[in-house]
Amino acid sequence: MRATFMYKAGDVRVENAPDPVIEHPTDAVVRIVRSCVCGSDLHPYHTMPASEGPAPMGHEFLGIVEEVGSEVSGFTRGDLVVSPFAFADNTCEFCREGLHTSCPNGGFFAVGGIGGAQTEAVRVPQAQGTLVKLPADVDAALLPSLLTLADVYGTGHHAAHQARVRPGDTVTVIGDGAVGLLAVLSAKQLGAERIILMGRHRDRTDLGRFFGATDVVPERGEEGIAKVRELTGGHGSRAVLEAVGHLPAYQMAVGAVRPGGVISRVGVPQYENAPIGFGSLFGPNVTLTGGPAPVRAYIEQLLPAVLDGTVEPGRVFDRTVSLEEVPEGYRAMDQREALKVMVTP
Amino acid sequence: MRATFMYKAGDVRVENAPDPVIEHPTDAVVRIVRSCVCGSDLHPYHTMPASEGPAPMGHEFLGIVEEVGSEVSGFTRGDLVVSPFAFADNTCEFCREGLHTSCPNGGFFAVGGIGGAQTEAVRVPQAQGTLVKLPADVDAALLPSLLTLADVYGTGHHAAHQARVRPGDTVTVIGDGAVGLLAVLSAKQLGAERIILMGRHRDRTDLGRFFGATDVVPERGEEGIAKVRELTGGHGSRAVLEAVGHLPAYQMAVGAVRPGGVISRVGVPQYENAPIGFGSLFGPNVTLTGGPAPVRAYIEQLLPAVLDGTVEPGRVFDRTVSLEEVPEGYRAMDQREALKVMVTP
């Protein structure tokens, strides 16, 4: 089959690779129907040394079950499924608490010897716990929105959920990428009244307004912080959802959050050390939360409104490429020509 | 009157100072009945440059109202009162949310021109919002426990409250100072089932066991982390209450906390930057919370069990000195000869 590998920063190739096979009785093999390029794929696209390549790429997909291991029940060949970007057994104490990303039997696609999803087919470990079956007769027009359940919609929801967004809340979202925009949508669904979107790409922030943003702040840094404070009566935003992952975004979050408020991070941090002392988090009793989203915990909850068209998270896809064109998809996202690129096999 | 000043690290003096007077109609003047030395007073005792001195010291007190300003109602001369270490109007939007430490009309004793409490009398700004009246006929034996409501008990409670400690919970407390020990008591009051106290001073950890600790871990660093993980089935502690403030204590908290758990800090951080990236907080979805305790928000709630003797937080005081002996009190706490030193005028 054909599969995507990153050789080093800026160097993405589609190549021949062995077809995936059942390796454990808990596996399934799934043929990809739709996959996509993630904002987090751009981090290695900027920085990956050649010594770490070639690395399989992609962790979001819809697919058709092709084969299941002997210990997988509830799925048969031909089922349409969505997979979270992290596989998990869905039975351990962490999964039962909704923290599938910490499942001791779990892991991430395209990491640690598990294949990527920007490919024709993928082996899914812990398939029974990981996969969620979709209606067989689903309208093809819904596929983009269903695909967002694999990562970006669940991740945006996680940001809002961890920040305990509640009706009437004031929420600031940092980042107008797909996750940031779907954090806007999620904050709106949880009842936020005021949603300030910090982003500077007009087409994206317009989509943010469609999803529920009430204000857009294109300024960054101190200027952006001042604007958010001005919009929130001088005190800052009760919740700040940080969907970027770079240190300046964290610093903006610290500046924009209200005393006693919450910073909820879902952008994968590209830093390890950052200010958390008296002058940043401690003095104003600010809570810092977030992490990789346990998307599996949210799929059933978010699915109905996608299926009945109440929400259209799939609007974040503004370009579609074939599998052979995946390198062009990376380039387009990196150049901000595309917000999020969907891949058809 | 006589009052305590720190001239520089290690140099504490009791000197003559002007008697406090009403400066604003919202002030009261309170004559000190009991004050004390705080673990946080030891931070400047270790590091304060001479250029920052002389600084008034002390922020915890019980007292008798001597005079009130024209806008203070509900208090009269002779009332016995307890004061939180932070004064606040108790009417603003932050105070109404229970975040008195962020009151725009508030501030801290012994900071920014406000007198300290290791003295004979103190001016209390925002007296009506700040002070809490105690029963006139209170048993003198209860004074030590009542004094803890000014800071250390409320601060220990804040740590547990911010960590949302709940019945059946597993909680680890880092630090066997007065705040750590009262965090143990608070976790117990909130229903924690397993309370692991990290501390190496046997007399203190014994008091911790009296307050509710089920396990004591004297080891520090990686060894201490391993011990907590061993005691918690390998996964770590759902909540970690950090009552020290030094970076190694934070690092222990990161190592000892369970994925999806909470680190709640009340030790005043003696650092600004610390690890919060994928390898520390983000990857395991750990929440970081805490800050200076809005003690005022908790006094009424914690008072009844103190008055009826259900709890005895005043047991943290193991030495009493006169005002003139305050420098000796600092020395004894610094040398770990005393856990917490009470000051009588």
The largest sheet of chain A, given as strand count, sense and whether it forms a barrel, is: 7 strands, mixed
* Percent range for β-strand residues of chain A: 25-35%
Shape of chain A: globular
* CATH arch. level architecture of the largest domain in chain A: Alpha-Beta Complex
Number of helices of chain A: 12
- Here the CATH topology of the largest domain in chain A equals Quinone Oxidoreductase, Chain A, domain 1
Count of DSSP E strands of chain A? 19
Low-confidence stretches of chain A: none
How would you describe the oligomerization state of the chains in this entry?
homodimer
Structural class of chain A: alpha/beta
Calculate the terminal CA-CA distance of chain A, rounded to whole Å.
Answer: 11 Å
CATH class of the largest domain in chain A: Alpha Beta
Helicity level of chain A: 25-40%
GO molecular function (chains A, B): metal ion binding
Keywords (chains A, B): Metal-binding, Zinc
Protein name (chains A, B): IMP dehydrogenase
Pfam families (chains A, B): ADH_N (PF08240), ADH_zinc_N (PF00107)
Secondary structure elements and their pairing?
Two copies of one chain form a homodimer.
Chain A: E1 2-8, E2 11-16, E3 28-36, H1 42-47, E4 55-56, E5 61-68, E6 80-83, E7 86-87, H2 93-96, E8 107-108, E9 121-124, H3 127-130, E10 132-133, H4 143-147, H5 152-162, E11 170-174, H6 178-189, E12 194-198, H7 202-211, E13 215-217, H8 221-231, E14 237-242, H9 247-256, E15 257-265, E16 273-275, H10 278-282, E17 287-290, H11 299-307, E18 319-322, H12 326-334, E19 341-344
Parallel strand pairs in A: 11-12, 11-14, 12-13, 14-15, 15-17, 18-19
Antiparallel strand pairs in A: 1-2, 1-4, 3-5, 3-9, 3-19, 5-6, 6-10, 7-8
Helix pairs in contact in A: 5-6, 6-7, 8-9
